[in-house]
Design goal:
alpha/beta; Aspartate Aminotransferase, domain 2; Aspartate Aminotransferase, domain 1; 2 domains; 4-stranded antiparallel β-sheet; 14 helices; 13 strands; about 40% helix; binds pyridoxal-5'-phosphate
């Protein structure tokens, strides 16, 4: 019985076309700015995002961190969602490495941050307080695509308060596909955006940070400081180019699969699925916490790997989960001895 891995879309393996591109990639020393494949990837990402420049980096965590340091100096702060990746799941890098403080705020049900709440947390210009410099959003947030009109409001808001606006767009292409829009329609509202190539887009490694030339110059400096200056990394960047050119539209399949899965398990007694939250490639399931180990072991017996985000079961659909697999997962849910 094959393994079905629903823990994350980070488990996706590169496609044959990626492997071919990697084998044939032209390379150079990227610390000298001489890797043609990285230059091509950066130009492609910047043009898709409608921004001046882009920087290829090893991980989404580093990409977000570089953005935070490009926007905020020591003794400054960013406002961010309490459950946002840039606050909760990146090891506290901003404070540990850059003396940049986070001001976390509870997220709203739709994945946005209430701008009224954000306003109430902006610090006055007074030596008692750290200086608020940046608002950081995440899209998709737990699988939810942030409404486009909200993004426009957020832009107006940061302009009014003279803040920067960063997007952790690890899965921004899932929002693009869900909203049947373009990347630019989303990124036009931001000063910087971090895009992961290694999640649903299935590249083995890497993220791109996009922004103005000035912002990318600062990020480039920090990338070196953090040990992210790679050499002939065109070998991996080549898969990133394939990811951007060939892997975006197919995310719609993952979204369909998420719907199939959610519909197939929504009526099972003992579980609760929030159907409104199933917007892209994630399904969250609530159940009684004392049953967690028992559920995990029943899935493991069926060769199905599942993960948790906090207390909720998180099922992530991606290119290496096929329609037939969804049926097998639904049957496993139906057979659970709760
Ligand atoms: C929303 C979000 N942002 C950023 C990241 C960080 O990416 P990486 O694992 O490449 O550091 C992740 C990783 O899962 C993520 O889910």
């Amino acid at each position: 019985m094959s393994v079905i891995d629903l823990r994350s879309d980070t488990v996706t393996v590169p496609t044959p076309s990626m492997r071919e591109a990697m084998a044939n990639a032209g390379v150079g020393d990227d610390v000298y700015g001489e890797d043609p494949t990285i230059i091509e990837l950066q130009n492609l990402a910047a043009s898709m995002a409608g921004m001046e420049a882009a920087l290829y980096v090893p991980t989404g965590t580093q990409s977000n961190l570089l953005a935070l340091f490009a926007h905020c100096e020591r003794g400054e702060e960013y406002i961010v969602g309490q459950h946002a990746h840039t606050y909760r799941y990146e090891g506290g890098g901003a404070s540990i490495l850059g003396s940049v403080q986070a001001q976390p705020i509870e997220l709203e049900d739709d994945g946005t941050l209430s701008l009224a709440k954000v306003e109430s947390y902006i610090k006055p210009d007074d030596p008692h307080f750290v200086k608020t410099k940046l608002l950081c959003l995440e899209n998709t947030q737990a699988g939810k695509a942030l409404p486009l009109d909200y993004l426009a409001q957020a832009r107006e808001f940061v302009d009014k308060h003279k803040l920067g606006l960063h997007l952790d767009g690890a899965r921004v292409f899932n929002a693009v596909v869900k909203q049947q829009t373009t990347l630019k329609d989303i990124t036009q509202h931001f000063d910087s955006v971090s895009i992961c190539l290694s999640k649903g887009l299935a590249a083995p490694v890497g993220s791109v940070l996009c922004g103005s030339q000035e912002l990318i110059n600062k990020a480039h400096r920090w990338r070196k400081v953090l040990g992210g200056g790679m050499r002939q990394a065109g070998v991996i960047a080549a898969a990133g180019i394939v990811a951007l050119n060939e892997m975006v539209e197919r995310l719609a399949d993952d979204h369909d699969h998420a719907q199939m899965l959610a519909q197939g398990i929504k009526d099972i007694t003992g579980l609760s699925v929030d159907l409104d939250a199933v917007q892209t490639n994630m399904v969250f399931v609530d159940f009684e916490q004392s049953k967690r180990e028992n559920i995990l072991s029943q899935f493991a017996e069926q060769n199905i790997k599942i993960g948790f985000l906090g207390e909720q079961m998180r099922l992530v659909l991606h290119k290496d989960v096929a329609s037939e697999d969804i049926e097998r997962v639904i049957q496993c849910f139906k057979g659970l001895k709760l």
